[in-house]
Amino acid sequence: MTNQPASTDPNGFARTPGGAISMDGNRLRDEIVAELAATIVAAGSPAVCLATVLVGDDGPSQRYVRNKHVQAAKAGMLSRNEVLPADAGQARVEQVVSALAADPNVHGILVQSPLPAGYDEEAVLRLIPADKDVDGLTSESMGRLVRGLPGLVGCTPLGVMRLLERHAVPTRGRRAVVIGRSTLVGLPLSLLLARKGVDATVTIAHSRTADLVDVCRDADILVGAVGQPGLITAAHVKPGAAVIDVGISRTEAGIVGDVDFEAVQAVAGYITPMPGGTGPMTIACLLENTLTAARLLGAFPD
Ligand code: NAP
């Protein structure tokens, strides 16, 4: 079986053969990109610019960056790609990022991760001003998230929140289990789900969690952010739960998520396809963040 939907429901959401609503990230990305484009036109088309920094010639990183620029153009944004050879050196990379940080025509800066071996990524991140930090990865951005201050939140966790919102998945008072506690995905997502106004009761699971099946079976919202193919089986899933697959593993069979899609779609109420779920949402939210950055910098009207 494929991850393709078998039917649609009255709200226009596709359903899997087992009846779960398919949380279609490609569709939602296209909607968000179109909304961003309309917002920019309505404001008189002020320049909104995303800059990426790509060091080295890693194939997947090149594809990710290219895709970001394609979608930025669709959103009516300018984009700039600084490409450096793998041996450019720490000083040169820092010089490029510092120049983007100081450039008033650049609103968002994304340094494609991982940098090649030998680079000090933390030192590079520290050069990105919080208001241009469209990846939401700097200490200042994380601190703002923890303190509930205006700022930029990581694109992947934000993308998960947008999927839940657009599919009207209830969160208030519901139990959410996030498997994974990285600063890139699991931790910020847990904070977002627990925020006032979202109001889920959140459990963070990780590699030392005992009885993962029991922990997960309580969840109304279950997120896999691990990178272990098929970790989440039907046994982990409460009937009707929303199951969101963030994990990406490249196998001989292609890209595989943390969720055993075929088994879980028969139990879940909502499920993300893989691919086509959280991945496209990460890019949509990068562009959403770029517009937010332009607002934070006073370059775009509120
Ligand atoms: P990471 O830093 O390696 O974190 C993985 C987390 O999973 C860790 O907290 C780890 O626990 C936990 N874990 C590992 N094995 C486990 C197990 N058997 N049971 C429960 N928890 C376990 O990875 P990441 O950067 O957060 O990324 C997570 C996944 O998301 C990766 O596959 C990555 O490729 C993918 N990703 C996808 C997108 C997207 O757009 N869809 C974006 C970013 C990342 P410990 O903390 O105890 O080690």
Structural notes for this entry:
The protein is an alpha/beta fold. The chain has helices spanning 25-42, 59-74, 90-102, 121-125, 139-147, 155-166, 186-194, 212-217, 261-264, 278-296; strands at residues 7-8, 14-15, 21-22, 49-55, 78-84, 108-111, 175-179, 201-205, 221-224, 242-245, 249-251, 254-256, 270-271. Among the domains are: 44-129, Leucine Dehydrogenase, chain A, domain 1 (Rossmann fold), CATH 3.40.50; 155-279, Rossmann fold (3-Layer(aba) Sandwich). It has 10 helices and 13 strands. The strands form 4 sheets. The chain has a 6-stranded parallel β-sheet with strand order 3-13-10-9-7-8. It has a 3-stranded parallel β-sheet with strand order 5-4-6, sandwiched between helices. Strand 4 (49-55), helix 2 (59-74) and strand 5 (78-84) form a beta-alpha-beta unit. The mean pLDDT is 96. Residues 156, 179-182, 184-186, 205-209, 212, 225-228, 231, 246-249, 278-279, 282 line the site of NADP nicotinamide-adenine-dinucleotide phosphate (NAP).
Summarize the structure.
This protein is of the alpha/beta class and 302 residues long. The protein has helices at residues 25-42, 59-74, 90-102, 121-125, 139-147, 155-166, 186-194, 212-217, 261-264, 278-296; strands spanning 7-8, 14-15, 21-22, 49-55, 78-84, 108-111, 175-179, 201-205, 221-224, 242-245, 249-251, 254-256, 270-271.
